[in-house]
Amino acid sequence: MSLNTKVVYQLDNEGYFFGITEAHESPLNPGTFHIPSGAITIAPPELKENEIPFWNGKEWTTKPDFSAHTYYHKQTKEIKRFKAGEEFDSNYTAQKPLQEEVFQKFTSTWVIDEDAKSENQKSIIRSIRNSLLSETDKYFRPDFPGMTETKLAEIKTYSQYLRDYTEKDNWHLSEPLSLKSWKESEYTN
User: Fold this and answer.
1) Is 12 helix (H, G, I), strand (E, B) or coil?
2) Which among 21, 81, 16 has a CA at the least distance from the CA of 51?
3) What H or E segment, with its residue span, contains residue 25?
4) Cα separations (Å) of 153 from 23, 121, 156, 180?
5) What would the pLDDT profile of 106-140 be if each residue is shown by its tens digit?
6) Distance (Å, rounded) from C-alpha 38 to C-alpha 119?
């Protein structure tokens, strides 16, 4: 004896369409079908992109569905997976950030943020310059051994070089010279 079947629509525990399954006709009561738990006989509606059918207990509605992709926060690059029914947050994009690039921003696509990259480099070079400048402080103490007027004048010139360093063009593209390197360079000639 062959049992008749009919298509029914399976829902998950929340009411979202899960898939198509079959209901089998009762062998003892022809015309009656055993519908699996969580399934209904009404077909879901046609969908637009990024929609999922949702059964509210009385009828089908549609809810957003962005669960098929991984999304990235446009500022923090934090990864997010949206759940079915969750509204899309426009702070996220499906475009993957640039690999191995710390300084990037999202406009209509991911691009290198040259301003942020430059500011970071300036901060690094400024820190190196400040460290070198603080190393010269010991030479200005009156009790520093072996300090002559000539050596003191040289240290003052080097300190001024360090103070003026951030005023030159493209200063952030190279490190300031150490005292030893500065003495050996053309700056003292």
Assistant:
1) coil
2) 16
3) strand 17-25
4) 97, 31, 5, 15
5) 999 999 999 999 999 999 999 999 999 999 999 98
6) 58
